[in-house]
Amino acid sequence: MKRFILFLVLLLSSVEPVLGTRIKDIASFDGVRDNQLVGYGLIVGLNGSGDSDQTKFPVQSLVNVLERMGVTVNRVDIKVKNVAAVMVTATLTPFAKQGATMDVLVSSLGDSTSLSGGTLLLAPLKGADGQVYAVAQGPVSTNAFSYGGQGASTSKNHPTAGRVPGGGLVERELPNVLADKSMLKLNLHQADFTTATRMTKAINDRFPSAPASNNDPGAVILIIPPEYQGKTVAFVAELERLEVTPDNSAKVVLNERTGTIVMGEKVRLSTVAVSHGNLTLYIKETPEVSQPSPFSNTGTTQVTPRTSIKVTEGGGGLAVVDAGANIGDVVRALNALGVTPRDLIGIMQAIKAAGALNAELIII
């Protein structure tokens, strides 16, 4: 009896607990979202790598800047190569306060060859509603270079796009969508009936005084409990710490460009037999040249083609995968055939066409 109890204790201790995922990692509150900002600006101080004279709008923009500073110039008289026009983009995070800083991205609009070493002049950043929410200015960091002459050139990374670390300054705050609300809505990052049901149950177990509900697999409706009225931040902080085990559908993702294959844990196969073999065709051209001997009066040079062909077929095998096989069984069975990742892409497509792959096949 003691041995049996000891064996049971060891068996239970060896079972790994199912770890859940925090609600804050799989869902977000309705209205709490990032906002895209965009603007137009000028980068100055470039070492001859700015826009050429064929690009008209950077010079016009420079003239406008100088006129706003009280300097009147003729556009025809300006010929510079150290100025580049750029589009400035940034992401305004929710609850960002006035005066907060953020990184901005700059991308060349004209034919500038490099933005390295330049400085972005003050540029307003607008939202989709046309309102200015931030301004950007500062030195540009590209982590790249581009040098060359008339005969050759060399470059590293992408010199016509860069970042201004901390160069954005928030000027207008977004409205607080959580203030003075008695009901909140959680949107799942991936809509799923099982995950939404589990999340609703976890919330109801923790806050029974204000039950949650869900009408669709993509959202959960919350009522702020009476003890948290006026303390929305504390309620959200407590809510986000709850753990839920998300459920996902079986998927196989194939990337034909890189040969990458990603399979979900719940991928299952019906009974199927797979055979794989490689056919290699090797063709080599070795022309033979025949020419007359030196100082001969007659004869011409002749070129006789010689082609050698070699065909090699790899030893394919037949692997049987039983019904209900999990991802480990699938990989072991296909590895037994000696397939490469790119070959595996074709095999998975064929298994799906045969109706034996019980998962969604996604090709990117």
Task: Give a quick rundown of the structure.
With 364 residues, the protein is an alpha+beta fold. The protein has helices at 2-14, 23-26, 56-68, 193-206, 232-240, 327-335, 341-353; strands at residues 21-22, 27-29, 35-44, 83-92, 101-108, 119-126, 132-139, 145-148, 153-156, 161-170, 183-188, 213-216, 219-223, 243-244, 251-255, 260-263, 268-269, 272-276, 279-285, 288-290, 302-304, 307-313, 317-321, 357-358, 360-363.
Characterization of the model:
With 364 residues, the chain is an alpha+beta fold. It has 3 domains: 123 residues, no CATH class; 62 residues; 96 residues, no CATH class. Helices cover 21% and strands 36% of the residues. The protein is built from 7 helices and 25 strands. The strands form 9 sheets. A 6-stranded antiparallel barrel has the order 3-4-5-10-7-6. The protein has a 4-stranded antiparallel sheet with strand order 2-11-13-12. Strand 6 and strand 7 form a beta hairpin. The longest helix is centred in the middle third of the chain and has 14 residues.
Radius of gyration: 33 Å
Which secondary-structure class do the elements indicate?
A: alpha+beta
Helix proportion range: 10-25%
Spans of at least 5 consecutive residues whose pLDDT stays below 50 are 1-17
| Number of helical elements | 7
pLDDT averaged residue by residue:
81
